[in-house]
C-alpha cells in the first residue's frame, strides 16, 4: 500500500531505548497505529525495526518516518546515512525522510541537503520527503528549492502551551501538513486545570483532550508512550470532538512554552 497522506496519528519514539522501544512499537502496531516516527538521533532505529518486524504487520501497511541529523547534511553524507538508517530499520525504504533541523547557521546550504533528499526519493530510498523545525521563512525557501517535489510535512513542537500558530498556519497555506511532536508537553498537560476540567466533564484524560485539540487543528499528533493503556487512550483521543468553547479555552493556554530549543535551533517565529 502506498500512503499518499500521513496517517492521522503516529507513535513517537523519542527517548525510547532498547527493549522499551522494541516493545512500544510492537504494542502500538498491535493496537492499530500505522505510523511510526523515529530519527537517527534517537539511537533506536534498530529497535524500532525489530518492533516492526516482530509485530507481524506487513511492512507495506506501516508508514515509517526517520530523520537525518544535522551532522549528515552534506549531499554524500545524507545519502550514506539514509542507507545506514534503512539497514538498522531492516527495510529497503522509509515512507518519509525528514531533515531533522535546518543546518545550524546555514553551514550546509539548503539547496545541497534538500537536493540530496530529493535524490534519495528518486532512488526509491524514501517515498516522501519533508522537514522538521523549519521556520516560515525556511519553509518558503524549501518550497522554492524543491519546486514540484512536494514537502509532505513540517514536523514541529505543538501542544496547548505552544500553539505555534504562525508556523502551523503558514505550512497549511503552503499545502504542507504539520506533524506535532511533544503534543503532551512531556506530561505537563496532565497538571493543567483547564485540561483537567474539560477531561473530567467528558470522562477522559487531560492527555486525550490535548491530543484531540492538536488534531482539531489539522495537525498530526505523534505522542510517545511505552504503556499499552496510554497508547490505546492516545489513539482513542482522535474520536473526541471538542466544542468551540472547549477549543477556545485550550487556545487560551498558549504561553509560547518551547521544550525543544537547542542552541543550534533557528530563530523561531
Automatic annotation (TrEMBL):
Catalytic activity: hydroxyacetone + NADP(+) = methylglyoxal + NADPH + H(+)
Protein name as annotated: 2,5-diketo-D-gluconate reductase B
Family: Belongs to the aldo/keto reductase family.
Species the sequence originates in: Marinobacter pelagius
InterPro entries per UniProt: AKR, Aldo/ket_reductase_CS, NAD(P)_OxRdtase_dom_sf, NADP_OxRdtase_dom
Boundaries of every NADP-dependent oxidoreductase domain copy: 8-254
GO biological process: methylglyoxal catabolic process
PROSITE patterns in alphabetical order: ALDOKETO_REDUCTASE_1, ALDOKETO_REDUCTASE_2
Active-site residues, record numbering mapped to chain: 42 (proton donor)
Residues at which substrate binds: 100
Record-annotated site: Lowers pKa of active site Tyr: 67
Keywords: NADP, Oxidoreductase
GO molecular function: methylglyoxal reductase (NADPH) (acetol producing) activity
Gene3D superfamilies the record matches: NADP-dependent oxidoreductase domain (3.20.20.100)
SUPFAM superfamilies, A to Z: NAD(P)-linked oxidoreductase
Amino acid at each position: 500500500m502506498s500512503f499518499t497522506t500521513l496517517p492521522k496519528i503516529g507513535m513517537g519514539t523519542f527517548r525510547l531505548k532498547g527493549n522499551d522501544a522494541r516493545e512500544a512499537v510492537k504494542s502500538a502496531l498491535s493496537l492499530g497505529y500505522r505510523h511510526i516516527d523515529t530519527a537517527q538521533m534517537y539511537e533506536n532505529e534498530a529497535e524500532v525495526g525489530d518492533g516492526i518486524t516482530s509485530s507481524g504487520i506487513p511492512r507495506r501497511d506501516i508508514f515509517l518516518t526517520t530523520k537525518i541529523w544535522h551532522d549528515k547534511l552534506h549531499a554524500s553524507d545524507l545519502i550514506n546515512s539514509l542507507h545506514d538508517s534503512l539497514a538498522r530499520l531492516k527495510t529497503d525504504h522509509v515512507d518519509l525522510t525528514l531533515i531533522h533541523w535546518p543546518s545550524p547557521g546555514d553551514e550546509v546550504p539548503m539547496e545541497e541537503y534538500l537536493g540530496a533528499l530529493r535524490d534519495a526519493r528518486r532512488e526509491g530510498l524514501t517515498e516522501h520527503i519533508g522537514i522538521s523545525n523549519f521556520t516560515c521563512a525556511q519553509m518558503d525557501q524549501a518550497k522554492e528549492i524543491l519546486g514540484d517535489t512536494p514537502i509532505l510535512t513540517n514536523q514541529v513542537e505543538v501542544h496547548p502551551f505552544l500553539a505555534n500558530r504562525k508556523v502551523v498556519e503558514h505550512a497549511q497555506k503552503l499545502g504542507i501538513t504539520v506533524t506535532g511532536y511533544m503534543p503532551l508537553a512531556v506530561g505537563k498537560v496532565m497538571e493543567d486545570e483547564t485540561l483537567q476540567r474539560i477531561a473530567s466533564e467528558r470522562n477522559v484524560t487531560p492527555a486525550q483532550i490535548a491530543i484531540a485539540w492538536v488534531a482539531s487543528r489539522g495537525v498530526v499528533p505523534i505522542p510517545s508512550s511505552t504503556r499499552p493503556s496510554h497508547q490505546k487512550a492516545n489513539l482513542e483521543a482522535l474520536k473526541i470532538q471538542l466544542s468551540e468553547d472547549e477549543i477556545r479555552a485550550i487556545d487560551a493556554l498558549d504561553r509560547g512554552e518551547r521544550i525543544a530549543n537547542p542552541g543550534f535551533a533557528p530563530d523561531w517565529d
